[in-house]
Write a structure and sequence with these properties.
Blueprint: H1 2-13, H2 18-31, H3 38-47, H4 57-96, H5 98-106, H6 118-121, H7 129-140, E1 148-154, E2 159-166, E3 171-177, H8 184-197, E4 202-208, H9 217-224, E5 227-228, E6 231-238
Parallel strand pairs: 3-4, 4-6
Antiparallel strand pairs: 1-2, 2-3, 5-6
Helix pairs in contact: 1-2, 1-4, 3-4
Length: 243
């Protein structure tokens, strides 16, 4: 999809006359098949229109240029959104595989020439949310250099602190680590409250269910993996085998 959009941006940029514009737009409309969102296709149809003047070719050319810039802007916005969505999916993939990082770090026997010992590495444990946040930050920092931790901002109804924020993806990552006597109701209430308070449109909850209080994991994920009041919410749940 990205390649087709990029090609049409380049083609439309070079258009210099009305006939050429009409031909390229006709081909663009044909290329925007059902795999593209209907809302996007309707927006393109709206942006491409211009009122033709029967008595002035110059006036038509000016109106065409205005429509041309609107179409290019619409295509670029779609392209940016597609790339941002892909990047967020990549982040989700990293989070889903976080256990692989922990296993390789703590369980794998170091080379005999290493100064680190298995005993030292096995001392790295996730005991609370602050441990989890620290490790996640370290894992994600090389990939997202603008990531920040403990970010406090004014939400409009009070100050809100996000555990991790990645500005380039317009994402906040909220870490949750279950406690020994924590009830599922309490965890759910915390997540729902965070959804309300955060102003970001993309919120990812990373739940390290240390004590396996989430019994119906698939149902829990299905409930939270959706849109709440215009905010895109994702939840990633880890239930470690080793405590």
């Amino acid at each position: 999809m990205d390649r087709i959009i990029e090609e049409y941006i380049d083609k439309i940029k070079d258009i210099d006359n009305v006939n050429e514009y009409d031909e390229i737009i006709r081909k663009l409309n044909y290329s925007l098949t059902d795999e593209y969102p209907e809302e996007f296709r309707r927006e393109i149809e709206q942006k491409q229109k211009y009122l033709k003047n029967r008595f002035s070719d110059e006036a038509n050319r000016e109106k065409m240029f205005e429509a041309k810039e609107k179409v290019i802007g619409c295509l670029r916005n779609f392209l940016y959104k597609e790339k941002a969505d892909d990047s967020r999916e990549t982040l989700i993939k990293y989070l889903n595989n976080f256990h692989v990082f922990m296993e390789e770090l703590t369980d794998k026997e170091p080379d005999k020439r290493a100064t680190l010992s298995s005993e030292q590495l096995q001392m790295i444990k996730i005991k609370n949310e602050y441990d989890l946040q620290h490790l996640l930050y370290a894992v994600l920092k090389p990939i997202y250099l603008d990531i920040r931790s403990e970010v406090t901002e004014d939400s409009g109804v009070g100050m809100v602190r996000s555990d991790l924020k990645i500005p380039q993806l317009q994402v906040v990552v909220e870490t949750k680590c279950t406690r020994e006597k924590m009830q599922l109701k309490k965890l759910t209430e915390e997540i729902e409250a965070d959804i309300v308070h955060y102003s970001e449109k993309n919120i990812i909850f990373f739940v390290y269910d240390k004590y396996k209080i989430i019994k119906e994991r698939q149902s829990y994920e299905k409930y939270f993996n959706r849109t709440f009041d215009g905010k895109n919410v994702k939840i990633v749940i880890h239930q470690p085998v080793k405590l």
